[in-house]
Automatic annotation (TrEMBL):
EC number per UniProt: 1.5.1.5, 3.5.4.9
Top-level taxonomic group: Bacteria
Known catalytic reactions: (6R)-5,10-methenyltetrahydrofolate + H2O = (6R)-10-formyltetrahydrofolate + H(+); (6R)-5,10-methylene-5,6,7,8-tetrahydrofolate + NADP(+) = (6R)-5,10-methenyltetrahydrofolate + NADPH
Presence of keyword NADP: yes
Residues holding NADP(+): G165, R166, S167
Function statement: Catalyzes the oxidation of 5,10-methylenetetrahydrofolate to 5,10-methenyltetrahydrofolate and then the hydrolysis of 5,10-methenyltetrahydrofolate to 10-formyltetrahydrofolate.
Biological processes per GO annotation: L-histidine biosynthetic process; methionine biosynthetic process; purine nucleotide biosynthetic process; tetrahydrofolate interconversion
Name of the molecule in the record: Bifunctional protein FolD
Tetrahydrofolate dehydrogenase/cyclohydrolase catalytic domain span: 6-120
Keyword Magnesium: no
Gene Ontology CC annotation, any one: cytosol
Source organism of the structure: Thermoactinomyces mirandus
Gene3D superfamilies (UniProt xref): Leucine Dehydrogenase, chain A, domain 1, NAD(P)-binding Rossmann-like Domain
Amino acid sequence: MAYQLINGKQIAKEIRLELKHEVEQLKAEGLQPGLAVILVGNNPASETYVRGKIRASEEIGIHSQLIRMNDTITQEDLLSKVRELNEDPNIHGILVQLPLPDHINPDKVIEVISPSKDVDGFTPINMGKLVIGQRGLLPCTPYGIMQMLDRTGISLEGKHAVVVGRSNIVGKPMAILLQQANATVTLCHSRTVDLPHYTRQADLIIAAVGKLNLITKEHVKPGAVVIDVGMNRNDAGKLAGDVNFEEVAPLTSAITPVPGGVGPMTIAMLMKNTVSAAKAIWQR
Ligand SMILES: Nc1nc2c(c(=O)[nH]1)N[C@@H](CN(C=O)c1ccc(C(=O)N[C@@H](CCC(=O)O)C(=O)O)cc1)CN2
Ligand SMILES: [Mg+2]
Protein backbone atom coordinates (compact mmCIF):
# COMPACT_ATOMS: atom_id res chain seq x y z
CA MET A 1 0.00 0.00 0.00
CA ALA A 2 1.23 3.52 -0.72
CA TYR A 3 1.61 5.37 2.54
CA GLN A 4 2.21 9.00 3.42
CA LEU A 5 5.44 9.76 5.24
CA ILE A 6 4.58 12.51 7.72
CA ASN A 7 7.49 14.93 7.59
CA GLY A 8 7.74 16.38 11.11
CA LYS A 9 10.95 18.15 10.25
CA GLN A 10 9.22 20.11 7.48
CA ILE A 11 6.06 20.88 9.50
CA ALA A 12 8.21 22.05 12.41
CA LYS A 13 10.12 24.32 10.05
CA GLU A 14 6.84 25.87 8.85
CA ILE A 15 5.72 26.49 12.43
CA ARG A 16 9.06 28.09 13.31
CA LEU A 17 8.77 30.37 10.27
CA GLU A 18 5.24 31.44 11.30
CA LEU A 19 6.57 32.18 14.78
CA LYS A 20 9.49 34.17 13.40
CA HIS A 21 7.02 36.49 11.64
CA GLU A 22 4.88 36.74 14.76
CA VAL A 23 7.90 37.58 16.94
CA GLU A 24 9.00 40.28 14.48
CA GLN A 25 5.59 41.90 14.98
CA LEU A 26 5.65 41.50 18.74
CA LYS A 27 9.11 43.05 18.89
CA ALA A 28 7.85 46.02 16.89
CA GLU A 29 5.12 46.39 19.52
CA GLY A 30 7.73 46.25 22.31
CA LEU A 31 7.60 42.60 23.39
CA GLN A 32 10.47 40.17 22.92
CA PRO A 33 9.58 36.71 24.23
CA GLY A 34 12.27 35.24 26.48
CA LEU A 35 13.05 31.60 27.29
CA ALA A 36 15.25 30.24 30.09
CA VAL A 37 16.54 26.68 29.73
CA ILE A 38 18.08 25.00 32.76
CA LEU A 39 20.45 22.12 32.09
CA VAL A 40 21.77 20.19 35.08
CA GLY A 41 24.83 18.03 34.38
CA ASN A 42 26.08 16.99 30.96
CA ASN A 43 23.93 14.16 29.66
CA PRO A 44 24.92 14.07 25.94
CA ALA A 45 21.33 13.63 24.66
CA SER A 46 20.11 16.52 26.85
CA GLU A 47 22.99 18.64 25.52
CA THR A 48 21.73 17.98 21.97
CA TYR A 49 18.11 18.83 22.77
CA VAL A 50 19.02 21.95 24.71
CA ARG A 51 21.24 23.12 21.87
CA GLY A 52 18.28 22.59 19.52
CA LYS A 53 16.07 24.73 21.78
CA ILE A 54 18.57 27.58 21.96
CA ARG A 55 19.18 27.43 18.20
CA ALA A 56 15.44 27.50 17.45
CA SER A 57 14.99 30.48 19.81
CA GLU A 58 17.76 32.42 18.07
CA GLU A 59 16.33 31.66 14.63
CA ILE A 60 12.86 32.89 15.66
CA GLY A 61 14.07 35.97 17.54
CA ILE A 62 13.20 34.71 21.02
CA HIS A 63 15.66 35.91 23.67
CA SER A 64 17.17 32.80 25.24
CA GLN A 65 19.21 32.10 28.32
CA LEU A 66 20.94 28.77 28.91
CA ILE A 67 21.61 28.12 32.58
CA ARG A 68 24.08 25.31 33.14
CA MET A 69 24.33 23.77 36.58
CA ASN A 70 26.76 21.20 37.86
CA ASP A 71 25.21 17.76 38.52
CA THR A 72 26.26 18.08 42.18
CA ILE A 73 23.91 21.06 42.67
CA THR A 74 21.47 20.70 45.58
CA GLN A 75 17.74 20.55 44.96
CA GLU A 76 17.33 23.71 47.06
CA ASP A 77 19.77 25.67 44.86
CA LEU A 78 17.93 24.53 41.74
CA LEU A 79 14.60 25.59 43.27
CA SER A 80 16.10 29.01 44.11
CA LYS A 81 17.17 29.47 40.50
CA VAL A 82 13.67 28.63 39.26
CA ARG A 83 12.11 31.05 41.76
CA GLU A 84 14.48 33.78 40.57
CA LEU A 85 13.44 33.18 36.94
CA ASN A 86 9.76 33.25 37.95
CA GLU A 87 10.35 36.89 38.95
CA ASP A 88 12.46 37.87 35.90
CA PRO A 89 10.40 40.21 33.67
CA ASN A 90 12.48 39.38 30.57
CA ILE A 91 11.77 35.66 30.88
CA HIS A 92 8.34 34.34 29.82
CA GLY A 93 9.20 30.66 29.54
CA ILE A 94 11.15 28.43 31.93
CA LEU A 95 12.06 24.82 31.39
CA VAL A 96 14.21 22.36 33.27
CA GLN A 97 15.64 19.77 30.92
CA LEU A 98 14.80 16.19 31.96
CA PRO A 99 16.09 13.79 33.15
CA LEU A 100 17.54 15.31 36.31
CA PRO A 101 20.23 13.61 38.47
CA ASP A 102 18.87 10.99 40.89
CA HIS A 103 19.23 13.14 44.02
CA ILE A 104 16.80 15.73 42.63
CA ASN A 105 13.06 15.10 42.66
CA PRO A 106 11.73 16.37 39.30
CA ASP A 107 8.20 16.78 40.72
CA LYS A 108 9.47 19.20 43.34
CA VAL A 109 11.29 21.24 40.71
CA ILE A 110 8.41 21.34 38.22
CA GLU A 111 6.02 22.34 41.00
CA VAL A 112 7.83 25.65 41.65
CA ILE A 113 7.78 26.81 38.01
CA SER A 114 5.22 29.57 37.66
CA PRO A 115 2.31 28.01 35.66
CA SER A 116 2.24 31.11 33.43
CA LYS A 117 5.90 30.44 32.45
CA ASP A 118 5.61 26.63 32.32
CA VAL A 119 6.33 26.24 28.59
CA ASP A 120 6.76 22.46 28.98
CA GLY A 121 3.18 22.27 30.27
CA PHE A 122 4.33 19.95 33.08
CA THR A 123 3.12 21.78 36.21
CA PRO A 124 0.16 20.34 38.13
CA ILE A 125 -1.82 23.50 37.26
CA ASN A 126 -1.35 23.15 33.50
CA MET A 127 -1.88 19.36 33.63
CA GLY A 128 -5.06 19.93 35.66
CA LYS A 129 -6.31 22.54 33.20
CA LEU A 130 -5.71 20.12 30.34
CA VAL A 131 -7.74 17.43 32.07
CA ILE A 132 -10.72 19.72 32.71
CA GLY A 133 -10.53 21.31 29.27
CA GLN A 134 -9.35 24.79 30.34
CA ARG A 135 -6.85 26.80 28.34
CA GLY A 136 -3.29 26.44 29.59
CA LEU A 137 0.16 25.61 28.27
CA LEU A 138 0.18 22.16 26.66
CA PRO A 139 3.00 19.59 26.89
CA CYS A 140 5.07 20.04 23.73
CA THR A 141 5.22 16.48 22.37
CA PRO A 142 1.48 15.68 22.44
CA TYR A 143 0.72 19.25 21.31
CA GLY A 144 3.14 18.74 18.42
CA ILE A 145 1.48 15.46 17.44
CA MET A 146 -1.94 17.17 17.37
CA GLN A 147 -0.51 19.89 15.11
CA MET A 148 1.14 17.34 12.88
CA LEU A 149 -2.12 15.40 12.44
CA ASP A 150 -4.06 18.62 11.85
CA ARG A 151 -1.61 19.98 9.30
CA THR A 152 -1.53 16.64 7.49
CA GLY A 153 -5.33 16.71 7.21
CA ILE A 154 -5.85 13.58 9.32
CA SER A 155 -9.26 13.79 10.99
CA LEU A 156 -9.76 12.32 14.45
CA GLU A 157 -13.53 12.62 14.59
CA GLY A 158 -14.99 9.27 15.68
CA LYS A 159 -11.67 7.46 15.15
CA HIS A 160 -10.33 4.85 17.52
CA ALA A 161 -6.95 6.00 18.83
CA VAL A 162 -4.76 3.64 20.82
CA VAL A 163 -2.02 5.32 22.85
CA VAL A 164 0.73 2.97 24.00
CA GLY A 165 2.54 4.43 27.02
CA ARG A 166 1.24 6.28 30.07
CA SER A 167 3.99 8.79 30.88
CA ASN A 168 3.08 12.22 32.24
CA ILE A 169 5.03 13.84 29.38
CA VAL A 170 3.42 12.01 26.46
CA GLY A 171 0.94 9.17 26.98
CA LYS A 172 -1.48 10.67 29.51
CA PRO A 173 -1.77 14.17 27.98
CA MET A 174 -1.92 12.61 24.49
CA ALA A 175 -4.93 10.50 25.45
CA ILE A 176 -6.72 13.59 26.79
CA LEU A 177 -6.04 15.72 23.71
CA LEU A 178 -7.21 12.95 21.39
CA GLN A 179 -10.49 12.49 23.24
CA GLN A 180 -11.01 16.27 23.22
CA ALA A 181 -10.71 16.01 19.43
CA ASN A 182 -13.56 13.46 19.50
CA ALA A 183 -11.50 10.31 19.08
CA THR A 184 -12.37 7.24 21.13
CA VAL A 185 -9.24 6.54 23.10
CA THR A 186 -7.71 3.39 24.55
CA LEU A 187 -4.65 3.86 26.75
CA CYS A 188 -2.33 0.84 26.82
CA HIS A 189 0.91 0.43 28.77
CA SER A 190 3.63 -1.98 29.81
CA ARG A 191 1.18 -4.10 31.85
CA THR A 192 -1.45 -4.37 29.12
CA VAL A 193 -2.16 -8.03 28.40
CA ASP A 194 -2.22 -8.83 24.65
CA LEU A 195 -1.25 -5.41 23.26
CA PRO A 196 -1.89 -6.42 19.61
CA HIS A 197 -5.53 -7.15 20.52
CA TYR A 198 -5.96 -3.42 21.19
CA THR A 199 -3.65 -1.88 18.60
CA ARG A 200 -5.16 -3.99 15.80
CA GLN A 201 -8.46 -2.18 16.42
CA ALA A 202 -6.84 1.24 16.11
CA ASP A 203 -7.35 3.77 13.33
CA LEU A 204 -4.49 5.69 14.95
CA ILE A 205 -1.62 4.28 17.01
CA ILE A 206 0.61 6.53 19.12
CA ALA A 207 3.65 4.53 20.23
CA ALA A 208 5.32 6.20 23.22
CA VAL A 209 6.98 3.53 25.32
CA GLY A 210 10.69 3.77 24.56
CA LYS A 211 11.13 0.17 23.43
CA LEU A 212 12.81 -0.58 20.12
CA ASN A 213 10.61 -2.41 17.59
CA LEU A 214 7.71 -2.81 20.05
CA ILE A 215 5.15 -2.27 17.29
CA THR A 216 5.38 -4.85 14.50
CA LYS A 217 3.11 -5.67 11.56
CA GLU A 218 1.06 -7.96 13.85
CA HIS A 219 0.00 -4.85 15.82
CA VAL A 220 -1.37 -2.83 12.93
CA LYS A 221 -4.68 -2.79 11.05
CA PRO A 222 -4.21 -2.05 7.32
CA GLY A 223 -4.75 1.65 6.62
CA ALA A 224 -4.03 2.82 10.18
CA VAL A 225 -2.05 5.98 10.95
CA VAL A 226 1.04 5.36 13.08
CA ILE A 227 2.85 8.03 15.12
CA ASP A 228 6.18 6.97 16.61
CA VAL A 229 7.34 8.88 19.68
CA GLY A 230 10.09 6.41 20.60
CA MET A 231 13.76 7.41 20.68
CA ASN A 232 15.95 4.36 20.95
CA ARG A 233 19.32 3.24 19.66
CA ASN A 234 19.28 0.15 17.43
CA ASP A 235 22.07 -2.46 17.21
CA ALA A 236 23.91 -0.27 14.71
CA GLY A 237 23.81 2.61 17.22
CA LYS A 238 21.35 4.55 15.07
CA LEU A 239 18.34 6.45 16.40
CA ALA A 240 15.14 4.42 15.94
CA GLY A 241 11.60 4.53 17.26
CA ASP A 242 9.21 2.10 18.95
CA VAL A 243 7.84 1.03 15.57
CA ASN A 244 9.50 -1.47 13.27
CA PHE A 245 9.27 0.98 10.40
CA GLU A 246 10.31 -1.35 7.57
CA GLU A 247 7.54 -3.86 8.15
CA VAL A 248 4.86 -1.52 9.50
CA ALA A 249 5.03 1.41 7.05
CA PRO A 250 3.65 -0.49 4.01
CA LEU A 251 0.56 -1.44 6.04
CA THR A 252 -0.25 2.13 7.09
CA SER A 253 -1.95 5.06 5.38
CA ALA A 254 0.47 7.46 7.08
CA ILE A 255 3.43 7.13 9.45
CA THR A 256 6.08 9.29 11.10
CA PRO A 257 9.78 8.45 10.76
CA VAL A 258 12.39 8.53 13.53
CA PRO A 259 14.33 10.75 13.28
CA GLY A 260 12.49 13.56 11.52
CA GLY A 261 8.99 12.89 12.85
CA VAL A 262 7.75 13.80 16.30
CA GLY A 263 11.12 15.02 17.71
CA PRO A 264 11.39 18.28 15.75
CA MET A 265 7.73 19.06 16.54
CA THR A 266 8.53 19.01 20.27
CA ILE A 267 10.95 21.92 19.89
CA ALA A 268 8.65 23.83 17.51
CA MET A 269 5.80 23.64 20.05
CA LEU A 270 8.13 24.77 22.83
CA MET A 271 8.73 27.88 20.75
CA LYS A 272 4.99 28.30 20.23
CA ASN A 273 4.35 27.96 23.96
CA THR A 274 7.04 30.55 24.70
CA VAL A 275 5.40 33.07 22.35
CA SER A 276 1.93 32.28 23.81
CA ALA A 277 3.24 32.65 27.39
CA ALA A 278 4.91 35.98 26.57
CA LYS A 279 1.69 37.34 25.02
CA ALA A 280 -0.43 36.17 27.96
CA ILE A 281 1.94 37.65 30.57
CA TRP A 282 2.20 40.91 28.61
CA GLN A 283 -1.57 41.30 28.32
CA ARG A 284 -2.08 40.96 32.08
N1 LIG B 1 12.04 19.52 29.98
C1 LIG B 1 11.89 18.60 29.02
N2 LIG B 1 12.66 17.52 29.02
C2 LIG B 1 12.49 16.58 28.05
C3 LIG B 1 11.51 16.76 27.02
C4 LIG B 1 10.71 17.90 27.07
O1 LIG B 1 9.81 18.13 26.22
N3 LIG B 1 10.93 18.82 28.08
N4 LIG B 1 11.42 15.84 25.96
C5 LIG B 1 12.51 14.90 25.76
C6 LIG B 1 13.70 15.43 25.01
N5 LIG B 1 13.43 16.46 24.00
C7 LIG B 1 13.23 17.73 24.41
O2 LIG B 1 13.57 18.14 25.48
C8 LIG B 1 13.58 16.21 22.61
C9 LIG B 1 13.87 14.95 22.13
C10 LIG B 1 14.13 14.77 20.76
C11 LIG B 1 14.07 15.81 19.88
C12 LIG B 1 14.40 15.65 18.43
O3 LIG B 1 14.31 16.61 17.69
N6 LIG B 1 14.81 14.48 17.97
C13 LIG B 1 15.28 14.30 16.63
C14 LIG B 1 16.54 13.48 16.64
C15 LIG B 1 17.64 14.11 17.40
C16 LIG B 1 18.89 13.23 17.45
O4 LIG B 1 19.42 12.94 16.39
O5 LIG B 1 19.31 12.84 18.54
C17 LIG B 1 14.21 13.58 15.80
O6 LIG B 1 13.41 12.82 16.35
O7 LIG B 1 14.22 13.78 14.59
C18 LIG B 1 13.76 17.05 20.35
C19 LIG B 1 13.51 17.25 21.70
C20 LIG B 1 13.02 14.41 27.10
N7 LIG B 1 13.29 15.48 28.00
MG1 LIG C 1 11.03 11.72 15.48
